[in-house]
Thiamine-phosphate synthase (Dorea phocaeensis), 217 residues
Amino acid sequence: MKCDKRCEEKDLLLYAVTDRSWLNGRTLYSQVEEAIKGGATFIQLREKELNEDAFLEEAKEIKELCARYHVPFVINDNVEIALAMDADGVHVGQSDMEALDVRAKLGPDKIIGVSAQTVEQALLAQKHGADYLGVGAVFTTGSKADADDVSHETLKAICDAVDIPVIAIGGIGIHNVMELAGSGICGVAVISAIFAQPDIQEATKVLKEETQKMVKA
């Protein structure tokens, strides 16, 4: 698979998606920094509850943190926030803005990720300018109640069909990441496998090592 200059496959190896439901008294900033220190290669800020002003302020802080560690930083769904605080890009789902429209808003230099569950969705996202695809849920997940399961056969078919990098998402952890070997993905996106763990830095480090083995297998 090829990847253009906006994002590289190595950046997508261990893609951490934030979730403030696991904060337990800590700040999201400190959790993200722990994940990056542990080896997270990409950060997506996912906020469903914060108002726009708080979201924007938080996004600016996390962007500064990611820039300091040279880790790509994208916003989940909210194209306006991504535009307002100059994020590295945005990740959109099938029910959000079309990749073509996102590209028109953000310009040619930003990273655009798109969620896909079928080969048809994947090919359309690629045609419309997506830089990478997030495919899932590949395992049962508690993080997204409406996530449809994607079989490993479909995951492989999507990887075979497109020229842009594909990451798997949904229920992935240290216990099952090796099951994705041979699918063609270049990395995994996780939430609880990092942010729900008591030692985020160590959990990230161990998961990254297993993910590297999986990708090479």
